[in-house]
Specification:
490 residues; 14 strands; alpha/beta
Length: 490
């Protein structure tokens, strides 16, 4: 089918905002719904892109251009933009689509994205699944079996296998927002998380019941012709029911994890008995070793730890987690989390309230056992979290191997007070500049004079003034370190 076929559908109420006739005649190969600010890696050629525009900020032309350029680079057939979020499709988006030659269609608030998706695939496969003699696309025996499995507490892998068994050798995946595979059919090859959405194509349906951008699930079939859309929608609804039940289990586990973090955060000596009870309630074995992680988002941390695999054992709280480290495993936890962190950052960027202050960061403490060791690991993780920055968003305490990195973990307010108190008498002019150059050249009078284009006697005079005003003696190592640290703090 073509984009023009959708526009001719009376019941959808779509409006063409921009698009040349030749572009509207391009073949549509699939549908992907996304609200990522840069969705390029999730798109395939010929796909229709559905977006509610929650990523867009009023008047931000750069965001609109970045989003549409990603669609153009991926070869998307058109952008279908929802009007519900902003009341209308922004003019900036229209201009960006015209500039990048991507057809733009407005979807009214009354029309659901599901209706658009069904219209696309029903056009491709015909209307067989909507005959009045058949209310459901899934066979009765399959629906009955799935209901029994849901009531019996079956997991995603068993549910997906039974839901798709009657379709033959179908490759079907249940993926998280970061591309982590929750389950896949026997016919589906394993796909690394970094590539799970990079050349997606096919059919991708959102499974409802997510509470944050990090825990969204998608039912994905790479071959768009492999299964009728109504069948896939009903399978997605099965997993929506599963997630309703899972939400209660996750909430209980999160409460136990937060209680454990609370025990480690408490004042006074930790009671080994209370700690052992909290570890058991959180599903962790006694004895350890453990590693504590701290993050700016507990939901993001939980999804990141999911990439460690089903065998990993951990308890996640509101903003920290305790991970049991199998002594026989050789997993570089910090390294693995660092590799998947960009996927989480992309998910976070799609949240409606995303902004510069919501940047994801993570800190990891050292391996520990026992009450005091765990408390120390928690303190280390929180310090490493403070030291993390946009260039190094995942930082282990082992990485704090320079004075500058150590100081980065000190709260900004404390650094400012120390730096101002130590160097405030110098002002911000030549004396501070001379001190900085002098320390950078290992306190060499000659090299400092050359770097500043000064006479050596002038450098001597200025350094003497620095010593007088700061009360430090630059022939002493500890005083040099005081002044160097103060410069770094400012």
């Amino acid at each position: 089918m073509h984009v023009l076929d959708l526009l001719r559908s009376d019941n959808l109420g779509l409006t063409l905002l921009w698009g040349d006739e030749d572009l509207l005649g391009h073949e549509v190969n699939g549908v992907t719904a996304t609200d990522l600010e840069d969705p390029g890696r999730f798109l395939g050629p010929g796909e229709l892109v559905l977006s509610g525009l929650v990523w867009w900020a009023a008047g931000d032309r750069a965001k609109a251009d970045r989003f549409v350029s990603a669609l153009a680079a991926a070869g998307a057939s058109a952008l279908l933009a929802g009007e519900e979020t902003h009341g209308k499709v922004p003019d900036e988006l229209v201009e960006a689509c015209r500039a990048h030659r991507v057809p733009l269609v407005a979807v009214p608030a009354r029309t659901s994205f599901r209706a658009v998706t069904e219209a696309v695939y029903l056009r491709q496969w015909g209307d067989l699944s909507r005959r009045p003699t058949r209310l459901f696309a899934l066979p009765e025996n399959v629906r009955a079996e799935l209901s029994r499995l849901l009531e019996g507490g079956a997991g995603p892998a068993e549910l997906l296998d039974r839901a798709c068994a009657h379709l033959g050798p179908l490759a079907c995946y249940l993926l998280t927002a970061t591309g982590r595979t929750v389950a896949r059919t026997p016919s589906a090859p394993a796909v690394p998380a970094q590539r799970a959405g990079s050349a997606r194509g096919g059919v991708s349906l959102r499974v409802e019941a997510e509470s944050s951008p990090y825990d969204a699930w998608h039912l994905h079939v790479p071959d768009a012709d492999a299964a009728p859309p109504r069948v896939l929608h009903e399978i997605a609804e099965v997993f929506a029911q599963y997630r309703d039940g899972q939400a209660r289990r996750v909430a209980a586990a999160r409460a136990a994890g937060q209680q454990l973090i609370g025990v480690l955060s408490g004042a006074g000596p930790a009671d080994p008995g209370v700690l052992e009870e909290a570890l058991g309630a959180a599903g962790l074995p006694a004895g350890g070793p453990y590693r504590v992680l701290a993050a700016t988002s507990g939901d993001a941390l939980a999804e990141a730890l999911g990439h460690l695999g089903d065998a990993a054992r951990y308890a996640v709280g509101d903003s920290a987690a305790v991970l049991y480290e199998d002594p026989d495993a050789e997993t570089d936890v910090t390294g693995l989390l660092r590799s998947v962190w960009p996927l989480l950052q992309a998910c976070g960027a799609s949240a409606p309230d995303a902004g510069p202050d919501t940047a994801l960061r993570l800190g990891a403490g050292s391996a520990a056992s026992g009450a005091e060791g765990l408390r120390a690991s928690l303190s280390q993780a929180r310090f490493a979290l403070t030291a993390a920055d946009p260039e190094v968003p995942v930082r282990g305490v082992e990485q704090l191997d320079t004075l500058a990195e150590l100081l980065a973990g000190v709260p900004r307010e404390v650094r400012t007070v120390f730096g101002t108190r130590t160097l405030g008498a110098l002002g911000e002019g030549m004396l501070r500049e001379t001190l900085e150059v002098f320390l950078a050249h290992n306190c060499s009078w000659t090299r400092t004079a050359e770097a500043l284009h000064l006479h050596v006697n002038t450098v001597h005079y200025r350094i003497e003034r620095v010593e007088t005003l700061t009360g430090r003696d630059l022939s002493r190592l500890d005083h040099k370190l005081d002044l160097y640290a103060a410069l770094r703090c400012l």
